[in-house]
Specification:
The chain is of the alpha/beta class and about 475 residues long. Helices cover about 55% and strands about 10% of the residues. The longest helix has 27 residues.
């Protein structure tokens, strides 16, 4: 028994010594050799990813289009080396082939969009004209609400606008883009544009009048058109080459609010006291903005003083830019004297700084409302009336604020401007189709319902909404029956 135990003990010690010896040997082996030994024992074979030539062509095309790169990119040696290095054995498509693929991609995207719009019951379009590099363009977008109540937005086109921006050319281009995507005027609820007179004229001339909402309305008889047959046979007849039909027009509310913040606000200078302090203050502010935007030395000096922070310079084409720029200056109020000294400009006095604070206090409701109504995803027609009524209430309170020392004329001009530009909306004039739809949208909005309606008009608005629900229910029942 003792001998067996001794034999077991000797074997155990021998195995322990062998284990220690093996660990010591492994400790002297380089790390790379250890990794090679482990890799030789554990072999993982990942399937090689095969990239086809078609996939390379598609990826290159998407890169050129989405990155808005010039077509000559595919001819550059560095780009060719990049693609051939990432996908050995594959070639970069030529510039001519790229042009053909872009055209084919555009054609297929157009067909898919037409099929998608065909399944939508109602849409809204927008149109705008702008000029750059001595060339004019007309752009259009389309918007609709999906089944899951998500807004969808797509660009319909960007057409070169040649010649004068006359109302007939505008109407022709808008009608042509609607027709290209099979957007019937009954599907397009309205087209939103700015307040330009040429847009207003185009829609006043070519907009198709809507039928009455009454169930008993009878379609009017189509009046015959007298045409000289002899002139047609002789080829002398000059009829309308293009039938122009436009949907109902709706002016952009955000553009109107921007006019309120610029054109209407500038009328406050008719007050001598406001005019003096306004011109003195903004003259010094403009000197700072000009120096920063025109001189890199001045911009670097301001950045050093403000610990890397930069100033915002007003831009005529960017809404609320003046308010944002003044607010940014006020955020650096403790640095303004140092900035003026560094730029060798006159300093803002304490009174002028107080004027800037009052200016931001008065303009803040307008800028906030403008930001809320130009949202991309969470802005709906139901927000319009509650926000406008709320803005008017805030401006009215500002006109009654006795603490305003300088900007009371500005508050009065803003209040007068909003009452003038949005009178039909603020008065809830249901004879205006746009106002009527805005009322229904606001009441149907879960966040507002009837909260924004004054007590004296609440019964009328409630009845208007109920009538709309009844009419919509009848239309749905009729469509199901047929």
């Amino acid at each position: 028994m003792v001998s067996e135990y001794q034999s077991y003990k000797d074997n155990k010690q021998s195995q322990t010594l062998k284990g220690l010896k093996r660990k010591a040997e492994e400790a002297n082996v380089p790390t790379s050799a250890k990794k090679m030994r482990i890799q030789s024992k554990i072999t993982i074979t990942a399937p090689a990813r095969v990239v086809t030539q078609d996939a390379v062509d598609q990826l290159v095309t998407e890169y050129i289009v989405k990155g808005m790169c010039p077509l000559s990119t595919v001819e550059k040696e560095s780009f060719i080396n990049l693609i051939e290095g990432l996908a050995p054995g594959k070639k970069v498509l030529s510039r001519k082939t790229l042009s053909v693929k872009i055209y084919d991609t555009h054609k297929s995207m157009t067909e898919r969009l037409k099929a998608q719009l065909d399944s939508v019951e109602y849409v809204c379009t927008t149109a705008d004209i702008w000029s750059t590099n001595n060339k004019s363009y007309l752009g259009m977008t389309v918007h609709w609400i999906d089944e899951d109540l998500t807004r969808k937005s797509v660009a319909l086109g960007c057409r070169r606008f040649i010649g004068s921006h006359t109302y007939d050319k505008i109407g022709e281009l808008i009608s042509e883009l609607h027709g290209q995507f099979d957007l019937d005027i009954r599907k397009v609820l309205c087209t939103v544009t700015d307040n330009a007179s040429n847009f207003r004229k185009a829609f006043s001339e070519y907009a198709v009048e809507e039928d009455d909402d009454d169930d008993d309305a009878v379609n009017e008889e189509i009046q015959p058109v007298c045409v000289d047959i002899e002139s047609i046979l002789n080829g002398d007849y000059e009829g309308d080459s293009v039938l122009i039909q436009l949907p109902r027009h709706m002016r952009c509310v955000c553009h109107s609010l921007n006019l309120l913040a610029t054109t209407d606000a500038d009328k406050a200078v008719s007050s001598p006291q406001y005019s003096r302090i306004c011109h003195a203050t903004f003259g010094k502010c403009q000197a700072i903005w000009n120096a920063v935007s025109r001189s890199t030395k001045a911009s670097d000096a301001v950045a050093d003083i403000c610990a890397g922070r930069s100033l915002t310079v007003p831009c005529p084409t960017r809404w609320s830019s003046k308010y944002v720029s003044v607010s940014k200056l006020l955020q650096l109020s403790d640095k303004l004297h140092e900035i003026s000294e560094a730029l060798s400009l006159p300093k803002l006095s304490r009174m002028e700084t107080e004027f800037m604070k009052e200016y931001c206090t008065v303009m803040e409701p307008v800028a906030t409302t403008l930001d809320q109504l130009q949202g991309d995803s969470n802005c709906f027609l139901g927000l319009l009336l509650p926000k406008l009524i709320q803005l008017r209430l805030k401006l009215k309170r500002l006109t009654e604020n006795n603490n305003l020392q300088y900007c009371t004329p500005l508050a009065h001009e803003l209040l007068s401007g909003i009452n003038k530009r949005f009178r039909s909306f603020l008065d809830l004039d249901v004879s205006d189709v746009a106002v009527k739809q805005a009322i229904l949208a606001a009441v149907a909005h879960p966040a507002y319902k009837l909260k924004w309606v004054t007590p004296e008009k609440r019964d009328a608005v409630t009845q208007l909404f109920l009538d709309a629900v009844v009419r919509l229910t009848k239309l749905q029942v009729t469509s199901i029956c047929h």
